[in-house]
Design brief:
- With 408 residues, the chain is an alpha+beta fold.
- It contains eleven helices and 14 strands.
- The chain folds into two domains: 176 residues, Beta-Lactamase (2-Layer Sandwich), CATH 3.30.450; 154 residues, Histidine kinase-like ATPase, C-terminal domain (Heat Shock Protein 90), CATH 3.30.565.10.
- The chain is 50% helix and 21% strand.
- Helix 9 runs parallel beside helix 10.
- The termini are far apart.
Length: 408
């Protein structure tokens, strides 16, 4: 049928489905999917309430994920339903839609709970993704007694798409949590190795140095043995410096004990001296501790960025600005190196895969943040990091007010 022959009501429904589909495609978490659907349908269908339940991990009950049109007291009473309990539990158990008409005048005990909410028309849909039950999505009205067949079919279509969107969001969230757990485990292992290097290897090298010093009086002065002991002393000293540097790169104790500001200051100073590249360092707003995961992410991103500078940028100067606000931790790393173009190629032929940018972006995105890169051949590179602080900050007495350092 040509579109010009479609009724305005049908065109409105097609437009509505398009809008809802767009919301599904852009949904990033399960809590917002049902809310977006309700917001899109509420005016069109005179809805006043929706309930979205998700199946619990043990598969025995439903947990209220999101809702609208009821107060917090009612939400608490409906927070968990066993499979087979009330309308939503029954719809989930049998994987079938349940529709209630003229609810206030029915005596069916199945509708007792929604009747108490003042609902007059109600429809609950099981959410199935790939044949798996993931929850339910129900809509209710307090201003009409029934839904038309077309409206029920629209709800069914929307619920079908919502199941896929919620399932996708849940998979993404599980992946994100797994990545965060993996990252935390890696940092814990780095912390353990760092402490072992610092506490055990450094002590053994110190002991070796003392033993070598004790040998000197036993050897005739100006002999070849004296020269060998002096060479061994220098080697032990070099090994001690290397062990200390590796321990700090694995996991600086200052990051755990004193916080991001001092840990970065120490690292940048050591990096600048080792690489002979001056760094303009400015840190502000870190008088209070940020969450450990946020501090670790910013530290690692700065560490990777400076590694890229020395490997690829051919820079002679670097600027590093760290700024903490009430809601975000921000970092800007700029260098005056050779840069690279939109194709990812620098004048020296460095590809973006070699720059570790994907790893930086992943660290930030796992915490809801972002990494933005600006660069052009011959004009250096600027890296902008922004990570939200998702929990209250804790006071830190070990760090003072904002400060500016020029290192190198």
């Amino acid at each position: 049928m040509p579109f010009r022959h479609l009724s305005d009501d049908v065109l409105d429904l097609l437009t509505l489905l398009g809008e809802i589909g767009t919301r599904f495609l852009t949904a990033v978490d399960a809590e917002t999917v049902a809310a977006d659907v309700f917001n899109a349908l509420s005016t069109q269908l005179n809805l006043g309430i929706y309930l979205n339940y998700l199946l619990t991990d043990d598969g025995r009950s439903l947990r209220l994920n999101s809702y609208a049109g009821i107060d917090e007291s009612a939400a608490r009473s409906l927070a968990v339903l066993k499979l087979g309990q009330a309308i939503c539990g029954t719809a989930a158990l049998h994987r079938t839609r349940i529709v209630g008409e003229d609810v206030q005048n029915t005596e069916d005990p199945l509708f007792d709970r929604v009747r108490e909410l003042g609902v007059t028309a109600y429809a609950c849909h099981p959410l199935l993704a790939g044949g798996r039950l993931i929850g339910t999505l129900s809509f209710g009205s307090r201003s009409r007694n029934r839904f038309t067949a077309v409206e029920l079919e629209l709800m069914h279509t929307v619920a079908t798409f919502a199941a896929v969107a919620i399932d996708r969001a849940n998979v993404s969230e599980r992946h994100r949590r797994a990545q965060m757990l993996l990252g935390r485990a890696q940092e814990d292992e780095r912390r353990r190795l760092s402490r072992e290097l610092h506490d055990e290897m450094a002590q053994r090298l110190a002991g070796l140095s003392l033993e070598l010093s004790a040998l000197e009086p036993l050897i005739r002065p100006s002999s070849a043995g004296t020269a060998r002991i002096e060479a061994l002393q220098r080697l032990v000293g070099d090994l001690g410096c290397s062990v200390h540097r590796i321990a700090v790169e694995l996991r600086p104790a200052a990051l755990d004990d004193l916080g991001l500001s001092l840990a970065l200051s120490n690292y940048v100073e050591e990096w600048s001296q080792r690489c002979a590249i001056p760094v303009d360092l400015h840190i502000s707003g870190l008088e209070r501790r940020a969450p450990e995961a946020v501090e670790t992410a910013v530290y690692r991103i700065v560490q990777e960025a400076l590694t890229n500078v020395v490997k690829h940028a051919r820079a002679t100067r670097v600027s590093l600005v760290i700024r903490a606000t009430e809601h975000h931790l921000q970092a800007v790393i700029e260098d005056n190196g050779i840069g690279f173009g939109v194709d990812g190629q620098s004048p020296g032929g460095t590809a973006p895969s070699q720059l570790g940018l994907a790893g930086m972006d992943e660290r930030a995105s796992l915490l809801g943040g972002s990494v933005t890169v600006e660069s052009a051949p011959g004009r250096g590179t600027s890296l902008y990091v922004r990570i939200p602080v998702q929990q209250s900050l804790h006071p830190r007495a070990t760090e003072g007010p904002a400060r500016t350092n020029v290192i190198g």
